[in-house]
Automatic annotation (TrEMBL):
Pfam families: HATPase_c_2 (PF13581). It comes from Streptomyces alboniger. This is ATP-binding protein. It comes from the Bacteria. Keywords: ATP-binding, Kinase, Nucleotide-binding, Serine/threonine-protein kinase, Transferase. PANTHER family: ANTI-SIGMA-F FACTOR RSBW, ANTI-SIGMA-F FACTOR RSBW-RELATED.
Length: 145
């Protein structure tokens, strides 16, 4: 696993940090631990626990649904944009496969994006700048002015 911290984010470069994780189940708790460790010193006003929960869901989806012929990684990046915190998760999957589902009560899977939709202030999915899929969520008022 590799990680990067951007100690002095600026308006033209608002990234606070990034992780590159192998596409394996163990990456989910690693992502939770490292995000918590590196976001805490920035003292966001939003719930770190909520962000960690959503990162868990998105990294799990990236590991399960990401596809590539060769070596690939799941990338997690987090940004301070004004008063908002934006977290992106990238994988080499197909962006058109990302959809919000409404699973039945006895369905074992399919609640990850529903959870992100209900906890975050907003979220969206699209094409990653690395190729593949990017899903992100935003927490507004993470740093009130």
């Amino acid at each position: 696993m590799a990680y990067t911290l951007d100690r002095y984010p600026r308006e033209e470069s608002p990234r606070l940090g990034a992780m590159a994780l192998p596409p394996e189940a163990e990456s989910v708790p690693r992502a939770r631990r490292w995000f918590r460790k590196f976001i805490t010193p920035y003292n966001p006003a939003c719930s770190i626990d909520d962000c960690v929960l959503m990162i868990s869901e998105l990294v799990t989806n990236a590991v399960v649904h990401g596809r590539a012929d060769g070596h690939w990684v799941v990338r997690v990046e987090w940004f301070r944009e004004g008063g908002s915190l934006r977290v992106e998760v990238h994988n080499p999957g197909l962006p058109e496969n990302v959809r919000l589902r409404r699973p039945d009560a006895n369905d074992a899977h399919g609640r990850g994006l529903l959870l992100v939709d209900s906890v975050s202030d907003s979220w969206h999915a699209g094409t990653s700048r690395f190729g593949g899929t990017m899903v992100c969520f935003r927490m507004t008022d993470a740093w009130p002015s």
